[in-house]
Amino acid sequence: MNPQTIVIYDGSFDGFLCCVFMIYDQKISDPNIRKESEINNQLFTITENVITEKSKANRVWKGFKSKTTPYEQRDFFKVFLSEIKGVENTLLSYMKNVFAKEHNIAIDYSNKDILKISQVAKMVRREKHRMEAFVRFQLTSDHIYTATVEPDFNVLPLLIPHFKDRYADQQWIIYDLKRDYGIYYDLKVVKTIIIEDFHKNKSKIAPEFLAHGEKEFQKLWVTYYDNVNIKSRKNNKLHKQHLPQRYWKYLTEKNNIP
Fold first, then answer.
1. How many CA atoms are closer than 13 Å to the CA of 164, on its beta-carbon side?
2. Which of 60, 168, 196, 203 is most buried by its number of CB atoms within 10 A?
């Protein structure tokens, strides 16, 4: 019995593709892909550490793209961003099926890996749409519109096209407190950033960092929100169905402004 090979990578998408490259290149028969941050408690295993190389990642992705549709490629990336434990091995299994086919055929939802990818991609897509709807920016004293989020899945990369198009004339930051990184638009390109100790601020930006007049603007928005509500037609159950309570901490209209 050959021991299982634990393939360790840095957690990036390119790193994952380099794992696939190594598995094929070294003909690893029983691989288990894991992030560096995950502890390996298994006995009698072999460990291989993968170095992320863009050229190798590009080769794997190019091969995958040649056998799949753009829709399948987008869903594949969404599933990777789900960060569900062990999802890399589901994606690897899916890739093996894709590479084994001589011709591209219709998506086979009877395949358990394809079905799981479809289901998880739908969950990630839903979270992306909710973030697009529920992100609330606050103007800081350095004239950058800043928002904090803690999504269930790592959807920040998926938000870039939406916010870059909608707020093309403004500098903005959307910071994921859960994963301690953000995306920053400087009026030209979107960059990935890490701000030291930013994740300790929870869902609020400290008042001393807000621009002059920002608090008054937020109060005005809360007043408007309260006034447009029709109390006689209030339906809390339906409201929470369309606007889950876990998102309320991001919303200006759901917070008391002192």
1. 15
2. 60
Say if residue 188 is exposed, middle or buried (CB neighbours under 10 Å; 0-12, 13-18, 19+). Answer: exposed
* Rounded-to-10 torsion of CA 130, 131, 134, 140: 180
- This model's pTM is above 0.85: no
CA distance 152 to 244: 13
In tens, the pLDDT along 96-136 reads 989 987 665 556 667 788 888 999 999 999 999 999 988 88
CA–CA gap between residue 144 and residue 246 (Å, rounded): 26
- Could you tell me the strand order of the sheet in which 138-139 lies? 138-139, 145-149, 172-176, 181-185, 190-193
Angle separating helix axes 156-166 and 70-81, nearest 10 degrees: 120
Can you give the residue ranges of every domain in the chain? Answer: 4-126, 135-254
Which is nearest to 148 in space by CA: 210, 57, 237?
210
Query: Can you read off the two tokens belonging to residue 158?
Result: 């998926």
